[in-house]
From TrEMBL, chain A:
Protein name as annotated: Sugar ABC transporter permease
GO biological process, one term: transmembrane transport
Keyword presence, Transport: yes
CDD domains per record: TM_PBP2
All copies of domain ABC transmembrane type-1, residue ranges: 91-304
UniProtKB/TrEMBL annotation, chain B:
Transmembrane segments: none
Protein name, UniProt field: Extracellular solute-binding protein
Pfam family, one: SBP_bac_1
Domain of life, per lineage: Bacteria
Lineage: Bacteria, Bacillati, Actinomycetota, Actinomycetes, Kitasatosporales
Gene3D superfamilies reported for this sequence: Periplasmic binding protein-like II
InterPro entries xrefs: Bact_solute-bd_prot1, SBP, TAT_signal
This protein's record includes keyword Lipoprotein: yes
Length: 312, 455
């Protein structure tokens, strides 16, 4: 059925007419069931591998677990979270990365996408490929690579610093620089990804808008502010939401590069959850940490979507 | 605690299809654990001559050595097919944990498990490991180095057979000490170590020990743990109470701080057997490796150029006249509770671990030091070794392992304790914190996390 037929039917306020040649066959009940039967395998897998773990982990968060021994504790694990300094430390670390790294990365991606979209730039495909390549690097591989580059004694970064007479930096072993290192790694890996999203959107903004603005005397900055940015708004919202969720779930980079250290300086909620579950076998408490994270992500998501709607 | 073991029949059938803990809820990482096996039932694998196929999980060198034993094992037990898999270390711990959490589904029949994980698996996953007393394991209760049987058993139940017994060694670069005019055998206490370390540093510019100050590895507090064990102490006492705030702990961390203040600790990322640490040792960045027995054999392969430069002594005592021996870790073979062929799996473990010939061949190939007392009668443990300047280095460990030793209570909360100690040490070494204060905080944090009381 074409969209036009559906729209016309809507206008008439009644069900769309059945196109000719598609008369209802006998056994219509079965026919109606058919699509459900087709999606049943997918639904069953979804229920088994998505819904069940989500539901069961909530139940688990209400138990104190010692490996396979479980004791009902109600909201005990959640109360424990409130009084757990390590949880707050992990939350603080994650929050700090969120408010520092995400804006820096998105601004970089924005600048990059505008540059890559410029008519003045030659060898565009080469640059686009270059900036997007980090995205396809495996998380573990690039974590290890960053760890090797930033190694205090044998890393290439400190070697380069020494060439220009700068002192060596304890990238992974100093609490401050360890956070910086994780942020650098994230920025290297994801900037290209966000830039490509912006670039796709930029290419959808008609050139006529820029030409008209130029005729009206608008300079480059005004054109960027009044045409490019508004045009990018849906893409900006998408990347902000995705980056926020991704950062709140951050696990691989700190786990591989610093193991969450030194002294928990790069322990994120994801790392703490992993340690609690898979190192300490405290799965009930790990589930409670997971649900606290779900709550935080939901709140952030709602706020962002609401802000976007208000602006509309 | 009034706990119960989960895994009722109604849920178990469903769970088996689902596998292990899952990261769920929009990828946010919420965990779902699955129920388990009842365990403790009848021995599987029939009666009489063992038969069928078994899978063994281990890592790198030990896996290679177990594989090398298969032809000899098959000469005795021709009906058993053995498949040894190198899972890698530390990957093996996650693999075992996930399978345990899934009620034992997917576990290999025979598992190689370190002492830092064994108590957790025994205590937190009832039925996860088979009770080997039903297969006659109790006959070996006095066959291994003192203290190890307590580690693998609980009352009359036996959950593993000991394999490696790693007594602490003090591998000294005799050539550097000679340059500084210090005789390694004069190191009787750790105060002597500090005095000697300053001389070595002044004469050669070399630090004494490599320490992972930022704790990039979980076992970055090896030196602290050794200093505790030499005092007959540990993170927990025999009642399971936390002892991180004890005078012994404060003494251990204070010694480490003193050595760091004197410039005797090189900051090296990693622990023995990892690239950072091994490179530091190989390149002569440190003059002493206070490491477990296995590091002796490993060292020989790692740094052949340093042949003749090493001397092995017992670790010095923390207090004058105090103990100079400590079993710092051990590994074991355990049969999984869900194995369908426990009899054959146990037969292979028995062949590998209780037969001196097997252990001697493993020691000759890779220097993995056995816990089996009978193996020590072999001449290989009493011959001079050119790598150690002609010293009968294995005898040092044989003597150490034959002595009565203080049992070490790792408890099921060892991993949390280790993390608390790592963080405390990092605060002292990188931020100049006071040892007593950070240990007090670590003990109270551990108590809050584990619901254990402090001694």
């Amino acid at each position: 059925m074409s969209l036009a037929v559906r729209e016309r039917a809507k206008e008439r306020g009644k069900r769309p007419a059945r196109p000719a040649g598609t008369a209802r066959r006998t056994g219509g009940g079965t026919a109606r069931l058919a699509p459900y039967l087709f999606i049943l395998p997918a639904l069953a897998l979804f229920a088994a591998f998505r819904l069940y773990p989500i539901g069961w982990s909530f139940v688990l968060s209400l138990y104190h677990t010692e490996g396979m021994t479980q004791t009902w504790t109600g909201l005990g694990n959640y109360q424990r979270l409130i009084h757990d300094p390590l949880f707050w430390k992990a939350l603080g670390n994650t929050g700090l990365i969120l408010v520092v790294q995400v804006p820096v990365m998105l601004c970089l991606a924005l600048g990059l996408s505008v540059a890559l979209n410029s008519a003045l730039l030659r060898w565009k495909p080469l640059f686009r490929l270059g900036f997007f390549l980090p995205v396809v690097t495996g998380l573990v591989t690039y974590g290890l690579m960053m760890g090797a580059l930033l190694n205090q004694d044998s890393g290439a970064v400190n070697w380069l610093l020494s060439l220009v007479g700068l002192p060596e930096v304890h990238w992974l072993t100093d609490p401050f620089w360890a956070k910086v290192s994780v942020m650098l790694a994230l920025t290297w890996h994801y900037t290209g990804y966000n830039a490509v999203i912006y670039l796709a959107r930029l290419q959808g903004i008609p050139d006529e808008h820029y030409e008209a603005a130029a005729v009206d005397g608008a300079g480059a900055w005004r054109r960027f502010w009044h045409i490019t940015l508004p045009g990018l708004r849906p893409a900006l919202l998408l990347t902000v939401v995705l980056s926020t969720i991704g950062t709140l779930q951050l696990f691989d980079e700190p786990f591989i590069m610093t193991g969450g250290g030194p002294d928990n300086a790069t322990t994120t909620i994801g790392v703490y959850l992993y340690q609690t579950g898979f190192r300490y076998f405290d799965f009930g408490y790990a589930s409670a940490i997971g649900y606290a994270l779900v709550l935080i992500i939901s709140v952030f998501g709602l706020i962002q979507v609401k802000l976007a709607k208000e602006e509309d | 605690m009034g706990g119960r073991v989960v895994g009722g029949p109604s849920r178990r059938g469903f769970l088996r299809g689902l596998g292990a803990a899952a990261l769920a809820a929009g990828g946010a990482g919420t965990l779902a654990a699955c129920g388990g096996s009842s365990g403790g039932g009848a021995v599987t694998g029939g009666s009489g001559e063992p038969s069928g196929s078994i899978t063994v999980w281990s890592w790198k060198n030990p896996a290679a050595e177990l594989r090398a034993l298969i032809p000899a094992f098959n000469a005795v037990h021709p009906k058993v097919q053995v498949n040894v898999q190198d899972i890698g270390n530390p990957a093996i711990w996650d693999k075992i944990t996930i399978a345990m959490e899934a009620g034992g589904q997917g576990l290999a029949d025979l598992l190689h498990i370190g002492v830092d994980y064994l108590p957790s698996y025994i205590e937190k996953f009832p039925g996860g490991l088979a009770d080997l007393s039903q297969l006659g394991a109790n006959q070996y209760s006095s066959a291994f180095a003192p203290g190890l049987w307590q580690t693998v058993s609980r009352g009359s139940k036996v959950y593993a057979l000991p394999w490696e017994a790693n007594a602490a060694g003090f591998f000294v670069r005799a050539d550097l000490f000679k340059k500084a005019g210090v005789d390694p055998s004069s190191l009787l206490t750790w105060d002597d170590v500090i005095v000697a370390g300053k001389k070595v540093k002044a004469a050669t510019g070399t630090a004494l020990f490599a320490v992972d100050k930022s704790a990039s590895q979980a076992d970055s507090a090896n030196l602290f743990q050794l200093l505790m064990q030499l005092q007959g102490a540990f993170y927990f006492n025999l009642d399971g109470k936390i002892t991180l705030n004890s005078p012994e702990a404060v003494r251990a961390l204070t010694l480490i701080k003193e050595m760091d203040d004197a410039g005797l600790l090189a900051d090296v990322q990693g622990s023995p057997g990892t690239t950072g640490y091994d490179t530091a040792v190989k390149s002569g960045k440190v003059a002493v490796c206070p490491d477990p027995a296995w590091y002796g054999g490993y060292l020989e392969a790692l740094a052949p150029d340093l042949k003749g430069d090493w001397q092995l002594i017992l670790p010095p005592a923390v207090t004058p006249g105090g103990s100079r021996s400590a079993i710092v870790n051990s590994t074991h073979l355990a049969v999984s509770g869900t194995s369908k062929n426990q009899r054959a799996a146990f037969a292979f473990a028995e062949f590998a671990l209780t037969r001196p010939d097997s252990q001697v061949s493993i020691f000759k190939a890779k220097g993995i030091f056995p816990a089996l007392l009978k193996a020590y009668d072999d001449p290989v443990f009493h011959q001079s070794d050119p790598y150690f300047g002609g010293q009968k280095y294995a005898e040092v460990f044989v003597e150490e392992l034959s002595k009565p030793s203080t049992p070490t209570n790792y408890t099921s909360d060892y991993a949390r304790a280790l993390k608390a100690v790592d963080d405390a040490q990092t605060k002292v070494l990188l931020q100049g914190a006071a040892p007593a204060a950070v240990l007090k905080a670590a003990a109270s944090q551990l108590a809050q996390q584990t619901r254990r009381s402090q001694a």
